Amino acid sequence: MRQVSIILFFILWGTGFVTAQTNIAGTVTDARKQPLAGVTVTVSGTTTGTITNEKGRFELKTSRDLPLTLQVSFVGYATQSVPVRGNNFRNVTVELTEQAILADEVIVSASRVEESIAKAAVTVEKLGPRQFASSPAATPFDALQNVKGVDLLTQSLTFRSVNVRGFGANNNNRFVQLTDYMDNRSPGLGFGFGTVAGISDLDVESIELIPGASSALYGPDALQGLMLTTSKNPFTYQGLSAQLKLGANNFGKDDFGPKPYLDVAVRYAKQIGTRFAYKVNFQRLTGTDFIADDYSDRSTNARPGFFTTDASRGGVATGIGYVPNNDPSTNFQYDGVNIYGDDINVPGGSFRFPANYSRPELQNQLVTRTGYREIDVLGNEGKVFSNRANVALHYKLTNTIEASLGWYYGNGNFIRTAGFREYFPNYNRHQFKAEVRGENFFVRAYTTQQKAEGWNIGQTAVAINNAWKPINQWASEFGQAYIENKTTVEQARQTANRGRFEPGSPEFNRIRDAVSGTYNTDFVPGLTNVRGTRFRDNSQLWHYEGMYNFSKLLRVADLLVGGSYRRYVLESGGTAFPRKPDGSEYTIDEYGGYAQLSKTFPVVAGLTFKPTVALRYDKNQYLKGGFTPRASGVISYGVHNLRGSWQSAFRNPSPGQLFAIPGTGQGGEVGGTVLAYTGAGLIANPGYLVNETTPFQANPNTAAAPQPFVIDPAQYTTEKIKTWEVGYKTVVGSRLYLDAYYFGSRYSDFIAAQSVFQLLTPGAGVNALLTPSNYRTLQVNFNNTNEIFVRGAGIGIEYGLKNGYTLSGNYAYQIGLITLRDARGNVRNDRAGNPVVKRKMSNPEVAQLGRNFFISPENRYNISLSNPRLTDRLGATITYRWTDRTWVEQGTTQGDVWLPAWSSLDAQVSYKVPEIKSTVKVGGTNVLNQYYAQGYGLARIGALYYVSITFDELMR
């Protein structure tokens, strides 16, 4: 990468062309001849552009010969292509027409070339200045929550995971996020960080999102879709921009809140001469997170008798039978959702009295100890921060070829949810990119350098409890108080808790800091046989890619050819991933190449057909390579566009899913390779599936004993999907926009971690599973043999009303079906003896047989009424969002539950002050403050109110 940067540096400064410059000037007005400020004017086919001033005037210099064409665009108006000739280049006049619906947006993500969004062969969503300006969301990234079919799962105030088309994940590694074509995901942890390490809000030009398989052009991991965030080019967007945003959240809590937050951003860009331009960005946010404060008793299939069953049908599940008791003073097994150290299925969190205990009242009784709230364990009062910075140098080698160097920086703290909740107190990431781009090619190289250290919140709580008093001693004192003193559960807990480390006390803080500050490969100094809970991921990514468009050479068809190579360098010191036998860290090499061929055929007058075929091959050094084809076609007749596509995609396992072993990093995760299985001892000492073990634990005398869970890790492979889609898009009379789709997908070799109990003493026998201290819980990654089918549909509508009003809405529907198979490929039966073939994964008779992790609401919709021009200066938007209830299956310390349906009312009012090039915006999301959770165990989201003032392109 360093060599590439040096070479590009000399190209930037050593290449010079002396050409004549044409100075173009003009004025842009609306239909009433009123000047329009802030209109973007660009020379077609180049990045040369400018913005009109407060009088609607613009000037720009170009080395292109006349005649040429200008592209003139502005939020709320139809884009115009304006010819410039020798007789008007100093006095170009443009009159823009108001347009409530944008019909002619240009995208690049669907086919890697510029094309009309209406004629894209796959479903594509685009957010640009119009959507950002009218959205009530506090950031451009958060505006994705209004896109049809998109689920944003909020992990932290600054960290939201994008999910589409099922299998909602808190850390979605089946969805690729690109920032200026750089992978936004963590090299080691394998998920995108959203705005923790994105680009400054002021520098976001557009966000394009493809929901659905995208591997044919973008390679591994674009299994469920792709998002491309593009920053502003300094040749086009110049001057000083600044934004100050003040807000508050956590309203309506007696013991916590409301809490303020501050968000400040600055951007400066300048063109020097005709060929060089640069930009500098910085943004800082400080505030208080939404707090994970669900203290209800945890709903999880680890509970004995979790499902209601029909004994007459072999014990098949008919629903959830467990009734939570949220009162720890009366509940032996109280396990708060966001309370840790009291977990029923984690050693140290619970104790089962033996069946031969001296008093029958406690024989075989499971008792959980008193845990600690998440916010108490964190000890930071929920404070969050985020810093983002960017510097970019751009140089025009010719009129159509531009070179650039860029540095992107992200820093912040956040909480993420995997099998456990984990806190990252100070995440740091640098990305460096060098790129040369022309009309028909690009070459780029970039690297991601990450420093990430985090610690497991739940395991830290267990360690604090055990440092004070081991679980066996605590249980002995509990039992003695309960039996001998004839006390209640509450009184017995109080007796056993005497002298307990109280949150915030010096001793509590000392133990927490010692445990969370010690790597999980080491024992904590001063504590007996207690390992630390800290892990690090300082992994790196090196990526090189290029593409050439042969269309101008072939003329008869459009042909793209491209390829890429990347290397992951893992660096965790053994805390997140195991080391090689020689003690060095693992590296992962991947390479791939693709080609795409397309051509537009005229059929009859006004009717065209454009077929496209693409094929890509990719190879990961630890897995077999594979092809991902795509075939698509678009039939266009006037404003009507009918599309159809079939494609395949795949996902390489993340580093954790390849190599992770217990005691190194992510709780009890075990990778799918032979190396990981051996490291976890699963080959010699296989575990037992939790869902098969819990009935035996509840009724050891009558239930069948579980059998060991045995699979062959040598067969571990990539996760695959085949999907088809049909869609229709049209714009009628510049007032009605409609986009609809229907799709079907089939997953194979699906990778999903299953919960297993592994005995700590090999060969101890299944009766040892009756005592939690005899086993540990692991999350084992493997390719299951199940067939998974996802079906879905969606529709988005915008209608331009009179006087500038736009009424819009969208609806998305999807379901997940499964055919369950055993390790030998035979179809499994439910407990009533019926084959499980293409049945809903949320059905209790299916969920009873094991977790499938589909986690997706069947229905969701948005409705919005917007008018950016209530007056010349005033605009407003109101949006209602609703999401159906969701069946959640998640993690070791999370659970299994029907997450309730939720809704949110969002609104914003904006006021323009053109004299100082500024906009004042007052807005809020969930303004009625009806708290809801987007995932089990996640922070519950309440109202977020803000006021911002944005100054745009001063000192231009």
UniProtKB/TrEMBL annotation:
<keyword id="KW-0998">Cell outer membrane</keyword>
<dbReference type="Pfam" id="PF07715">
    <property type="entry name" value="Plug"/>
</dbReference>
<protein>
    <submittedName>
        <fullName>TonB-dependent receptor</fullName>
    </submittedName>
</protein>
<dbReference type="InterPro" id="IPR012910">
    <property type="entry name" value="Plug_dom"/>
</dbReference>
<keyword id="KW-0813">Transport</keyword>
<feature type="domain" description="TonB-dependent receptor plug">
    <location>
        <begin position="119"/>
        <end position="225"/>
    </location>
</feature>
<comment type="similarity">
    <text>Belongs to the TonB-dependent receptor family.</text>
</comment>
<keyword id="KW-0798">TonB box</keyword>
<feature type="domain" description="TonB-dependent receptor-like beta-barrel">
    <location>
        <begin position="446"/>
        <end position="927"/>
    </location>
</feature>
<dbReference type="InterPro" id="IPR037066">
    <property type="entry name" value="Plug_dom_sf"/>
</dbReference>
<dbReference type="InterPro" id="IPR036942">
    <property type="entry name" value="Beta-barrel_TonB_sf"/>
</dbReference>
<dbReference type="GO" id="GO:0044718">
    <property type="term" value="P:siderophore transmembrane transport"/>
</dbReference>
<dbReference type="Pfam" id="PF13715">
    <property type="entry name" value="CarbopepD_reg_2"/>
</dbReference>
<keyword id="KW-0675">Receptor</keyword>
<dbReference type="GO" id="GO:0015344">
    <property type="term" value="F:siderophore uptake transmembrane transporter activity"/>
</dbReference>
<keyword id="KW-0472">Membrane</keyword>
<dbReference type="GO" id="GO:0009279">
    <property type="term" value="C:cell outer membrane"/>
</dbReference>
<keyword id="KW-0812">Transmembrane</keyword>
<dbReference type="InterPro" id="IPR000531">
    <property type="entry name" value="Beta-barrel_TonB"/>
</dbReference>
<dbReference type="Pfam" id="PF00593">
    <property type="entry name" value="TonB_dep_Rec_b-barrel"/>
</dbReference>
<feature type="signal peptide">
    <location>
        <begin position="1"/>
        <end position="20"/>
    </location>
</feature>
<dbReference type="InterPro" id="IPR008969">
    <property type="entry name" value="CarboxyPept-like_regulatory"/>
</dbReference>
<dbReference type="InterPro" id="IPR039426">
    <property type="entry name" value="TonB-dep_rcpt-like"/>
</dbReference>
<keyword id="KW-1134">Transmembrane beta strand</keyword>
<keyword id="KW-0732">Signal</keyword>
